[in-house]
Amino acid sequence: MGRNAIASELGLGTSTITRIAKALGLDFSRAQTAVAVQARAIDLAAGRQRLAEKMLGRAEKMLDDLDGPYLVYAFGGKENIYSEHELERPPVEVQRTAVTTAGVAFDKLTKYLEKDTSGVETAHSLLDTLAAGFAAAAATYETPTETAE
After folding, report:
1. Cys-Cys link to 126, which of 38, 67, 80, 113 (CB 3.0-4.6 A)?
2. C-alpha span between 12 and 19 (Å, rounded)
3. Integer CA distances (angstroms), 129 to 28, 32, 113, in order
4. How many CB atoms are located within 10 Å of the residue 28 CB?
5. Would you call 90 helix, strand, or coil by DSSP?
6. Radius of gyration (Cα) for the chain, nearest Å?
7. Residues sharing a CB contact under 8 Å with residue 65, sequence separation 6 or more, in sequence order
8. Contact status, residue 98 vs residue 65, Cβ threshold 8 Å
9. C-alpha to C-alpha distances, 15 to 3, 19, 33, 37, nearest whole angstrom
């Protein structure tokens, strides 16, 4: 939680929370927040990539299914009887829906790829930030070397 959220939940002032955190050796540095935000952005980009791949796969399957026979079935009548028959190919409405859906998936995927071309740069930036943070942490824990007498 951030300082303001902690202060609000405990009914204390933000300066009091800052003073207590400082006494405990904690701070509310934005550097950690920036790293977390960048990591979250990379996770979201990966999620969008997975979703785009699923959409593309489903669109391809829909288009592939247009090339074969199409099963039509129904439940009906007084006895609610199941009946089915096979058409040589899907009806025009089904074909139109499949092509439209595939077109939308293709359009979304294209826009995603155009938008997320900076993902690699974001990953490098995040790794650079993490490396700098580790170096700073290591520097605070280093013990000075003793000089020989």
Report:
1. 38
2. 11
3. 17, 10, 25
4. 16
5. coil
6. 29
7. 90, 98
8. yes
9. 9, 6, 19, 25
Rounded alpha-carbon distances, angstroms, from residue 62 to 83, 88, 93: 24, 16, 13
Q: How far is CA 22 from CA 15, 16, 84, 109, 134, in A?
A: 10, 10, 74, 48, 21
Could you read off the pLDDT of 111-136 as tens digits, one per residue? 776 766 555 555 555 556 656 655 66
Higher pLDDT, 71 or 125: 71
Task: Determine phi and psi for 144, rounding to 5 degrees.
Answer: -65, 140
Which residue, chain included where needed, has tokens 């155009």?
A: 114
72, 84 Cβ separation under 8 angstroms = yes
Length of the chain: 149
Which residue is listed with tokens 């089915």?
84
